[in-house]
Amino acid sequence: MPxxxxxxxxxxxxxxxxxNYEAKKPRIENVQNHDQGKPHESLLTMNVHTGTHVDxxxxxLAGGETIxxxxxxxxxxxxxVLDLTHAxxxxxxxxLELFAIQKGERILLKTSSSYSEEFLLDFVFLxxxxxxxxxxxxxxxxxxxxxGIERAQAEYPxxxxxxxxxxxxxxxxxxxxxxxxxxxxxIAPLKMTxxxxxxxxxxxxxx
Length: 207
What we know:
By secondary structure, the chain is of the alpha/beta class.
């Protein structure tokens, strides 16, 4: 039996969200309960970019494809975790060149974000040149442990470069307990349609 790493964020009211905006925090409300003589039920209200999630091109590209166009075959299969915990500001082309990344790979970027349960305003992001390098190679998927794959870049070039290169973006992983190396990745976004993202459960299977 392979070791299973759950690399998903827990959805809860006090979780980290983008820039700590209150409006982006999920809300969980009890709508009926046993004291009322009824089954216990809860209502969850949250942004589809909350926690671990898969972005669809529509998120950053006008007229882009929506979440249901991303097949499960692209979200399940061999993957590699790259240790980039030494990166201080951003991940560049030069940082990535050391890993001899190949066409079609699913790449997971492990950074300092995995070691914080609070949103880091200065989180390590994938710089535009790094995104261009991955898109030019033709990777199939790039995932990050930050809640965004970029920050402080006008016009969102990292997202747009990857999306125009048909590279799937996954954000909000938890990789603290995962050593660098090769795994089988399983990402199961909620089965939604017509929108720009979907929350997901993400797992790695390894030795």
